[in-house]
Amino acid sequence: MKFRILALSVFLFLGYSTKATEIIWGQTGHRTVGKIASKHLTNKTKRKIRKLLKGQSLAFVSTFADEIKSDRKYREFYTWHFINMPMDSNYEDSKKNPKGDLVTGIKKCLEVIKDKKSSKKDKAFYLKMLVHLVGDLHQPLHIGLEEDRGGNRFNVKWFGQKTNLHSVWDTKMIEGFNMSYIELADNAEELSKKQVKAIQEGTVVNWVDETHELTKKIYKSAKKDENLRYRYSYDYLTTARKQLQKAGIRLAKVLNDAFK
């Protein structure tokens, strides 16, 4: 009897844990970016952000742009999360989405944040959006092909379970590493001031084109329906972590410039 009760308890716990994991998919990476960015902010920027967000951290608000997707009144922001362009193109030469994309979304966020006439409510909203979008910019499959929706239709398996290449890079590898966003941020590579400055150089468009170079490699990193396992994580998890660090460092630069 005791064994059956214990078995039932374990079953219920595992069932709950699975649902909880599904809910938090995609959040660890964005929170890592927010946490890393907070380490590179000036004191002036920290004060202004704290006031706008009413004490909430960048890590906390980093998932806001995904959370509002289910609300139809925010549908206009959907295309801000990605850019679709051919492998042999760059952002300037590629066909632009008339509904907007990552670059135009980030530009709009900064316009509102810098505008002295903008309300505090609007500034806070677009600040939350900005934190998320800079993170998306550094995920290679967010700058992927239109025909497979940025790898969402590039079907693969992850340890035997059906998924797609986009999800592997968005969540599977990071969640599979089993570290919290705080642990990931605290264990990011130690960089000198010179290295940080080098990462922060360039424009948003430059960063898009840089990420797109990585996108090309990622599309070649797997075959359709391939079962990706430990070897894939071994080969690419470090790259994913470096992208999170770059995103955080560059987000800090964008915010420091916006709140001068």
TrEMBL record:
<protein>
    <submittedName>
        <fullName>S1/P1 nuclease</fullName>
    </submittedName>
</protein>
<dbReference type="InterPro" id="IPR003154">
    <property type="entry name" value="S1/P1nuclease"/>
</dbReference>
<keyword id="KW-0325">Glycoprotein</keyword>
<dbReference type="InterPro" id="IPR008947">
    <property type="entry name" value="PLipase_C/P1_nuclease_dom_sf"/>
</dbReference>
<keyword id="KW-0479">Metal-binding</keyword>
<keyword id="KW-0255">Endonuclease</keyword>
<keyword id="KW-1015">Disulfide bond</keyword>
<dbReference type="Pfam" id="PF02265">
    <property type="entry name" value="S1-P1_nuclease"/>
</dbReference>
<keyword id="KW-0540">Nuclease</keyword>
<keyword id="KW-0378">Hydrolase</keyword>
